[in-house]
Each structure stands twice: as C-alpha cells, then as structure tokens.
Amino acid sequence: MAIEAIVANMDPVWNARSANTNAALKRFLQNVRDDGYPLLLVSDLNAARLNDAITEQLGDEGISFFSSILASAETESRYAVALHTLATPAHRVVAVGAEEGGFEEARSSGITQCVALKDALQQEAALFGSTCSSDQ
Which of 99, 85, 87, 74 is closest to 9 using CA atoms? Predict the structure, then answer.
C-alpha cells in the first residue's frame, strides 16, 4: 500500500529533555522530509506551548519540518481533521504515536497503519516504505 502522508503525535518527545531524543527526532524528521512525505503534527498542547516546545527541542527551524500543525482541539477527532487537512484517504496515511493506546483515535478515523514513535525514532532508513497495517 502506498503511503502519501504521515500524522504524528509527538507530545512525549516535547516533554523529554534528552540530547539523544533530540538527535533521533531530527533524523526522523529529516528522513520524512527527504522522502517527500507531508507530515502533519497533532498535539494535546495549546498552540503557544507547542510552539515553545518545538523551538526548545528542534531550534528555530523546527517548525519547518511540519506541513501542518493541529494543536489541542476540543471539538472532533484530531485525526479526522488531519485527514481533511491533508486531503488524503485514511488508508494512505500512517499514524505515528507514543503508545498503542494512542492509536485508538487514529483508528476511529479510519487510519489502520500505525507506527510507535520509539520505532520511528530508532529507524535510520526509510521507515514508511515497508509499513504494515497494525490490524493483524
């Protein structure tokens, strides 16, 4: 299945203050950009806190890694909004998140391909060319 876009929730990374995490995150984001995937960031943080967190972890250029950013929303599923924003069918999107429980919201929006953030950060090569459905 061809992947056209990635939706990521990286809130745990914004709370971590590790040089190793920062380096891994920058590598992951650079790989995503180099591979040409639009990357939409969803977050439970409000816009001001999220902007500060991105700048603290990635520097002033950090915001440029993301195609779009959806900070906390109280209305509908962030992933449904993400799919609408990306104008991409759910079956062509990969959700990247902190833990298995975090994928429930993505799955309820029709996204079945999910990758744990720790796995994405540990990959050196293109991760999404071989992504499999998490519904096994």
Answer: 99
pLDDT one digit per residue (tens) for the chain, 136 residues: 588 999 999 888 887 767 677 888 888 999 999 989 999 999 888 889 999 999 988 888 899 999 999 887 655 688 899 999 999 999 999 999 876 667 888 999 999 999 998 888 887 555 665 444 444 3
**Distance of alpha carbon 133 from alpha carbon 94, whole angstroms:** 9
Residue whose entry in the numeric block shows the structure tokens 């995503």: 32
- Fold designation for 5-130: Rossmann fold (3.40.50)
Give the integer Cα–Cα distance in Å for 41 and 13: 12
CB within 8 Å of 57: residues ≥ 6 apart = 13, 14, 21, 22, 25
CB under 8 A, 24+ apart: contacts of 45-51: 45/11, 45/14, 45/71, 45/72, 46/71, 46/72, 47/71, 50/14
